[in-house]
Amino acid sequence: MLVDESRLESWSNQGGTQASIKTHEAIREALLSSDRFKNIRYEIFLQGSYKNHTNIRGDSDVDIVVKSEEAFYCNLSEQEKRILNIQPARYGFYAFRSDVLDILKNRFGGLVEEGNKAVQIAFDRSSGYVPADVVVSIDYFHYKDLRVIFKGIGFVTQKEI
């Protein structure tokens, strides 16, 4: 397959970084300014091509992860959880996801839609923003012999709810 020089040039230039920064900051500010999360430990970070500086298309969306640190998933049995004295979370994934969705809907209105894996915000590119996927998640710990051997993130799709 032959690729012409103009296409190579297009592929080698990173997409609209200013719009992605503006989008990330707007979503971050909406969540950080909410009183709902005043006493909640959580983290907001970029994921995907913008985070890794590998986006090559100006029409890429921004992938943002909002991760609660108030709860976690794990592969332990109920008996193993009792041995390690792991108690159910007071503020679990479903409440956190619902609050994130409400905050984003209150700030961005009809642009927000609940997708299967992420909350999608359909910003119009002409507004200086780019569309965003907001993945609501919590920590995932994988145990072996009652010891953590792997840490990642987990989320529940709408099909699983």
List keywords for this structure.
single chain, 161 residues, alpha+beta, Beta Polymerase, domain 2, six-stranded mixed β-sheet, 4 helices, 6 strands, 29% helix, 29% strand
Structure in words:
The chain has 161 residues and is α+β, with helices and mostly antiparallel strands. The chain has one domain: Beta Polymerase, domain 2. The chain is built from four helices and six strands, in the order H-H-E-E-H-H-E-E-E-E. Strands 1, 2, 3, 4, 5 and 6 form a six-stranded mixed β-sheet that branches. A hairpin with a 4-residue loop joins strand 3 and strand 4 (119-121). The longest helix is centred in the first third of the chain and has 16 residues, at 17-32.
For the residues shown, what is the average pLDDT?
A: 85
Number of helices in the DSSP assignment = 4
Main β-sheet description: 6 strands, mixed
Question: Structural class, please?
Answer: alpha+beta
Tell me what the CATH architecture is: 2-Layer Sandwich
Shape: globular
In percent, how helical is the residue content?
25-40%
**Ends apart, CA distance between termini:** 45 Å
Oligomer: single chain
Contiguous low-pLDDT stretches (5 residues minimum) are: none
The secondary-structure element order is: HHEEHHEEEE
CATH superfamily: Beta Polymerase, domain 2
Give the total of beta strands: 6
